[in-house]
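User: Teach me something about this protein's shape.
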Amino acid sequence: MSIWGSLLGGVIGFSLGGPFGALLGSFLGGKISNISSSNTFGNQQNSQQIFALSLIILSAKLSKADGRVSKEELIAVKEKLQIPDSEIDQVAKIFNKAKDESTGYEPYAKQISEIFKGNQNVLEEVINILFYIAEADGHVSNEEESMIANIAFIFGLSQNQYESIKETRKSSDKLNPYIVLESQPTDDLKSIRKKYIKLSKEHHPDLLISKGVPIEVINESKNKMRAINAAWDQIQKLKSN
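Assistant: First, the predicted structure itself:
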């Protein structure tokens, strides 16, 4: 079952508070708030809803980071989040509200960081997908990259983690395998292998789904896994020469 049908009720607004609750609370009494606050969801589904909501709001903020909202970016949001046509009007209301309100992205990033505290691989996946959204018009602007970098900082991600995510967005023939695996060329193969195993476990799609990443957006996780595997293959070849 798609997460979108249950995302748009007032439940999350009541349960989250903070900037998320304030934004969704603005819709109460309208069509979006037609789910009773007595409804409850399992932890995994609730986490998936929060993850999806996080992407909608941060994507809206990102879409105007360079002063313009491109059609390609809006299409990317719909495609990346696999929003069905039956739900797009409702999701668009949240997107447009987040885009037009005066609240900056920072309070949302801080709340997301608190919600997924201890699950940095989930937070990394938010950054990964934000890059996908920014790339939609064929170019990541300096303003967009600066915003994504600051969100990663708010999330508590290290510079190595951020650079690794950024590097995996490149094609396998252009990526620096050491950056992807958060290593240095001077590191020995054994220590790099430990990094590879750690990253492979952390970014395995099944693990991410269990931690709250919706199945609708898991393809970008699979792409990251391919980059991690490609980087390890390259390093093995480099170290064997």
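Now, about its shape. DSSP finds 14 helices and no strands in the chain. The two ends are 50 Å apart (CA to CA). If you'd like, I can walk through any region in more detail.
User: That's plenty for now, thanks!
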